[in-house]
Amino acid sequence: MRYSTSSLVAVFFSLFTFLLMAVLIAQPTQFKSSNIEMINFSMIQEIKAPETTVTPPNVIPEHEVNEHPPTPPTLEITENGVGSRIEINPNDNNRSTFDNIFNKPVLEGPVGTKPGDLAQSSSLTEVLPVQPKYPVVAMQDKIEGWVKVEFTVNEFGGVENIHILDSQPKRVFDQSIKQALLKSKFKPMKIDGQAVSQQAVKTYEFKLDE
Question: Do residues 106 and 149 make contact, with C-beta atoms less than 8 angstroms apart?
């Protein structure tokens, strides 16, 4: 009796074991998936810039220097009826070039004064000479001429009240004379030690060297 009971227990235990193994094989274990972020790694390819060859710029040849530059025009200023011709460069701002032209007595004397007043008045001296420029068009067209101008030198040495009395050819050189006079400074005339305004007349001649 005891052996039959033990046999039954062993049979049941064996069946239970086989059933458990069958269940385990039939239903595989399911794992819960966790939220895992997938990181994609991409290959970074280093791209090198193509080598560029620097082409040197074309060398522009220097202009040939003219060994015989054109002779600059001359500005002739008439003083007291005598023409003094002095060669000047219209683009030269060297003050020493103009000292012989402008630092001289007034051409025709102050206008509207008596002979006695002329003797007592100071000579018209330009302390800041400004050269009239030869107009480019007139130079290119080889035009010569002259301008007779009247102006007032005030007590401060400035120029005002410029009037063109006459010119040949008309209005060719007038503007050049006006611009130069407006920038000029003169030594004012003094009477009894007091600086006063005075009027003056000058004649400018524009000539080209042949």
Answer: no
Which residues does 92 contact at the CB level (< 8 Å), separation at least 6? 131
Residues 179-195 as b/e (b if ≥16 CB within 10 A, e otherwise) read ebbeebbbbbbeeeeeb
For β-strands 198-207 and 194-196, DSSP reports them as unpaired
Q: What is the pTM of this model?
A: 0.46
Cα(205)–Cα(85) distance, rounded to whole angstroms?
9
Interval 89-109: pLDDT, tens: 444 444 333 333 333 333 333
CATH hierarchy code of domain 74-207: 3.30.2420.10
Return the closest-CA partner of residue 186 out of 152, 163, 149: 152
Long-range own/partner contacts, residues 26-31 (CB < 8 A, 24 or more apart): none
Residue type at 82? V
Q: How far apart are CA 56 and CA 46, in angstroms?
A: 30
